[in-house]
Amino acid sequence: MKILYNEPSPLETRVLSRRFGLENSERLDTYLATGGFEAFRKALEIGPDQIISEVKTSALRGRGGAGFPTGMKWSFVPRNHPKPRYIIVNADESEPGTCKDRLLMEYDPYQLLEGMLIAGIAVDSRKGYIYVRGEYRYLITHLERVVEEAYSRGYLGKNVAGTGFEFDVYLHSGAGAYECGEETALLDSLEGKRGIPRMKPPFPAVSGAWQSPTLLNNVETFSAVPHIILNGGQWFAGLGTPKNGGTRLVCISGHVNKPGVYELPLGYPMLKAIYEVAGGIPGGRKLKAVIPGGSSCPVLRAAECDLAMDYDSLAKAGSMLGSGGMVVMDETTDMVRAALRIMAFYQHESCGWCIPCREGTAWLRKMLARLDAGIGTPADIDLVGELSKNMLGRTFCALGDAAAMPTISIVEKFRDEFEAKLQSYAAAGLVQVG
Amino acid sequence: MAELVTLTIDGAQVQAEKGALLIDVCKARGIEIPAFCYYEGLALQAACRMCLVEVEKMPKLQPGCTLPVAEGMVVKTDTPVIHEARKSMLEFLLANHPLDCPVCDKGGECELQDMTFRYGLGESRFLENKHHVDEQQWSPVVFFDRPRCILCYRCVRICDEGVGVDALGVVQRGVVSAIAPSHGDHLECDECGMCIDICPVGALTSGMYRYKTRPWEMNHVGTICTHCSNGCKTTLGVRGGQVIRANNRDHSGINGEFLCVKGRFGWDFVNSTERAQSPMLRTNGRLEPVSWSRALMTVARKLNEVKQRGGRVGFIASNHTSNEENYYLQKLARQGLRSNNIDHHRTGDVVTLIDALAGRTDALATVADLYAAKASLVIASDLAQQQPLLHFQLRANWRHHRSRTYVVTPGPVRERKFAVKSLHAEPGRELDAVESLRDDLSKEPELVILFGDAIQGDAVRRLVAFGDSLGIPVKYVCLLDYSNSRGAIDMGLAPGLLPGYRPVAEAGLEPGMTIAEMLADASLDVLWVVGANPLRNARLAAENAFVVVNEMFLAETAQRADVIFPAASAYEKEGTVTNVCGEVQSLKKALKVMGAKTDLEIFGLVAAEMGIDLGPFQPGAVFEEIRREVRGYNVSLPVIATGGAAQSVPLNGRVPALTRAELIQSARDTLFTSGTLGRYSKNLTSVLEHPGKLYASGIETP
Amino acid sequence: MTFSAELEARFAKMMQSYPPGRERSALVPMLLYAQDEIGHVSEALILEVAARLNISRLDVDEVIGYYSMLHKRPLGKYHVQVCTNISCLLAGGEQLLEHAKKSLGIGHKEVTPDGQFSLEEVECMGACCWAPALEINYDFHHFVTPEKLDQLIASLEKVQ
User: Fold this and answer.
1) Which entry of A393, B364, C11, C42 is 20 to 30 Å from B340 by CA?
2) Residue A423 has pLDDT above 60, yes or no
């Protein structure tokens, strides 16, 4: 019996994670014994149009962070294109606060493969690649064994599960670049280049990997597909709220008693997730803020957290559901330092292609480091917000926005903490610079 | 006719071609959308974000450089939001950029400076430490200063897409990403300096120019490059009688944005300390400086003396002198001395081509045709090395229009990267290989054939017959070596041909001696060598011949001279030259080198001293005579006068069959050599790649 | 350059993994796996990989600096990567990094004189719920305390 990273919670709705904790959950026999490949057979029966229609009905939205409706994305891939079509799994999980795809690949890799196979049927593709971030080497090795087993048992290759359907799967390792989680940057990286995002259009659905039509989704998105096909899109949609189908793996980290990855239906109350699923805040301390879906989301104050965790409710609250990486911060949290650490990350990961992100993140990192040390003037605090807004919406890809959004929100919502640092520095008798 | 759409730009209804880029549509309407990374003809980047505009129904600002116009689109380019966006973008750009314009080499002609002046913030809010990296030298001609680089990627693209060398890339990432050279810490490339010219800021600078002057202290003179036969316009920056640099920032020549290493850096022979700056006369076996009047008188007397006694005079003319000089020289020889012993180093068989095409007026391609033609065939030339502009044109045609190129060469050439078919052909077997392309070529809608010196005499006729048999319109380029090789033959610097390819018999003369015959003629009395160096590899049989030399440098031939006239280079004179495609363009005098005179002046003064009247020796007057007298040269004066190129069309009659085989041989110069001129250019000889090699292109995957 | 038979087999498989003519796609994983074997991306490795993939050395240079896991200078035998990103920060990641610096006597991106250890402060490694976390080479260690780190270092020292 494999030791799980965290104890499951009875409050979970376990669909994608239902095999987590089973003996040899990663083996084909376990998978077959628990309904594996039934969805694949059904998918072959119902055919591409029906598959895509079910995925559309399921209201499944991309689990990587952008939340684009999956069924719609699949319908954009031209099936009768002269070039081959590719299925690509984005396993470059690297949004800070997010650690769910790891578990899906570790505990239930066949679920992912089956999702890829169904996508292969849907867009008439014969080849899939799993782009795994380089840091997850143990998972690449693990998946290599899984893929090998699948081939040897006839669940990949020329005649998948005896159905005559042909599909090959290859693994591809990244080497340390957050930007490669952006789908077009991932494609450039896959092609052996710097991971610079591509100009869109053309979208990958039409011209993606090696200029061929490409269907690219997150690990969790693919992993949801077998359940949707097997149980129907309607059923999956019913697990969540309207337009926000299904469950998702929420990674609750930070100041909670039971940090961990929990599968919760969309629309689950955020406070319940923090206080019941994740066991509340240690030492009975008060909640200060929450990053709802990875560090690129605007931060919510404690008072803003009484909401349902779905795409629309979070958008209404001025934030995002993002990648499911929920970071809980209690009253002891130094928000200036948090802002600095987040900006340091985006600065480190900025690919450098466009001016506002390249220069903006570097400038902001330096300013935030200064303000974190208490050096500066109130005008500097304003400038942090202003420079962030000058990046927002003007960069080549979303990385600039990802850096700007949390920063703007922290400066707006926790300005007093910046000011307090400046004051304590001045009070310490040190000369103020600025 | 492309489909038109109607859109609204700043409140005005505009019609534009569907799919055209907004930035171009605006430019055509006189609306500037500022941009750094956008560069017409190169791949789109959308990286600098300077060109953001407001588009109705789009929540975010859109980059105008990648936005295709569409029906009903409503665009605003001049709103407070856009002004603010441009300001902030420049503020970001300047964050790590040194604000030391007064000592920056680019100051005064910097796009970042101009943009900041027009669109930027008046002050800097950046108080942090700037990221600094030390400057690097990548080659004798290219320096890179990372802090000044704004990462617009123009240099990377011009090198890869434009020149096909791909010697620049981007390394690292984020704020420390930097442009990097092909070989770790240095460049191995064409050293063309296109990256320097295209750099909008002071990041890439020229090793030959940097920190020598401020741009506004120079006179900028657009003239024609004096090296190869392609006829590129080069703008010389001159200060205090010195050439400081050459570039082509105004892109007004037939070469557009292109210049190779020779055009950009090969000007330093002009101010070489080895220039001959005084006439020399051999006295007691030694060359001694003398006055111009003494030198001219000595030559005139000698020529008159030999003329009177019916002696033998020969002229070996130049591939670099102007059409006017060439025309005047052959007049001096033929009218003044009744001699047809006049020749020059011939590097391609234009004569047979002109004859084979007799009667046609549309069969000679222009440089522009190479960019427009649907298909081209290159025979026996390493274009990227020998004809760099023609290579650039073919490549641009391929990348913009997907034109089809066929190559038949004795070794690998750079065109193979994009050629649809490239065949290997041993010297002498080229036409067999060409024949094997018949099926492919006959399916093309049109064709331009470029051929080197391996195709001469009968082979030229067979090639033209092949072209005729394809049943499609075919144009030709007979490849030549030097800046006025074409003008030399056009102006009749050949023993059997008068100007305009007319037989010498028309002038009542017998054909004269070729170069080889002159050199071998033991009874030659006078040999006048103009801007050529025949004695580098040969001996003069006439030991007692009186040798006159017009030269810039005291090379091998000058060492044998009895009189040396110090000659002005093409950059020191007015006149016209004719490029490999027969396009006539005017030279502009950029400077005067003390002591030297133009060849035209020298010829005119000698004629005057001899007492013969050959008409005024003033370039404009001679060109008028050429336009009147020389077949095909009645070109448009306004085009030439305004710096344009007008093709001469000499194809309206048979050329007399040549009585005997003449030596036609290319000097096989590479990108880094240029005959005698190249030997005296330290800039050219200093690069690692010098002297270069033909047919040595590595065959890389595209 | 010669590599182990195992690595050669991996390379051979990689070359077959991509569409024909797209072998360049193997570039990044090739460099990473080769680095694992020889310790860093050496000049010889750059040229070797360029030759095998029929690309220029500049093409290789371009990717090396882009990917943070590729290193041109030799790493320690054990490369200790401490995450200090947001979730780890909240769980004491910075203190853990400081402790690692002290215990190993080296700073960020430095190598111990005996070449056994190198240290790097890294970005989020996907262990947010089990923070603070670090990776030694490719092995994840979760809920790492300074004491646990010292034990880890000690056990690795013994292995040498």
Assistant:
1) B364
2) yes
